[in-house]
Amino acid sequence: MELRCEGCAGCCVDWRPLAPEAAGSDRTGRRPPLDDAYDLVPLTRDEIAGFLDDGLGDVLVPRLFEPAEGDDAVRIDGVAVAAAGDRPVFAVGLRKPPKPVAPIGTDEHRWLDACVFLDPTTLQCRIHGDERYPRTCSTYPAHNLELDAETECERVAAAGGGDRLLDDAVPDDTPPLPFGPRAAGATVFAYPDPDDLDGVVDRLRGERLTPDDRARFVGAAVGSSPGSLSVDRDRMAEARDRAREADSWAGRAIRTWSERAAGDGDPVALDPDDRERLVRELEDDAGAPGTPGWE
Ligand code: SF4
Ligand code: SF4
Predict the structure, then answer these.
(1) Would you state the pLDDT for residue 271?
(2) Residue 22 pLDDT more than 90?
(3) Using CA positions, which residue lies closest to atom 6 of ligand 2?
(4) Centroid of ligand 2 to alpha carbon of 153 (angstroms)
(5) pLDDT at 25 over 80
(6) Residues 223-237: what's their mean pLDDT?
(7) Beta strand pairing status for 79-84 and 165-167?
(8) Is 9 close to ligand 2, i.e. is its CB under 6 Å away?
């Protein structure tokens, strides 16, 4: 696999407002997500626990799914949710606040939902290569290539964002699929107390999840064990408390970006110096790992 990622960030940014006809959707599987986040990065249980250990429990967000035909399902807020028995199944990913970015080879900065760890100035990942760099990101787009599914790199190229996928050979060490047969307790979890979820699906769909809502699912994911959908109650409660109390640079930046942003895809009404100053203030100076820029 060989990629040309400079100036792209197509897999880290929701660029649907820029090119709705070219941008794909992760709503195409058998179990469409209930939220509208684009290219959510599904994390493993250990990755979720690692973010929590680093005080970054406030960067995590749950994803619930519509049931496929033949699936178990529960109704929450009047919506059918895919379940294992009566326990809603979910994944956990990284939050995507609106940020001022110019991805996929464009020049004009716009407000687009972007991964909490994307440096809006360099369009590089702030955790690239470090211990917390998610497996989904480090191996992208190997799974798409393996499944013969279109990659974000190809979509960017189709939208006029330049050639991105220069070599499409799948590496031998590609890990198992996040939603494949070995996903239970590793990347797909089951929430053990469905009666507690009144209102959560409404808020999830309305992008109004509270810190407490997010922390519930983080707790249940960390209380899970690979290979099973059961949950250790003590570990769940302890992780939930830590997630609820998290107050990281990243969580604070998400809040401020969300307050500052204009509409989805709107141009950023700041001159370049002010824009970069704001990124420094909200992210770099607040504790975000730096990025090197492109050579
Ligand atoms: S963790 Fe890094 S590579 Fe992965 S989506 Fe976020 S910014 Fe992109
Ligand atoms: S979409 Fe492809 S080329 Fe663009 S940043 Fe992601 S991996 Fe790199």
Answers:
(1) 96
(2) no
(3) 11
(4) 5
(5) no
(6) 94
(7) unpaired
(8) yes
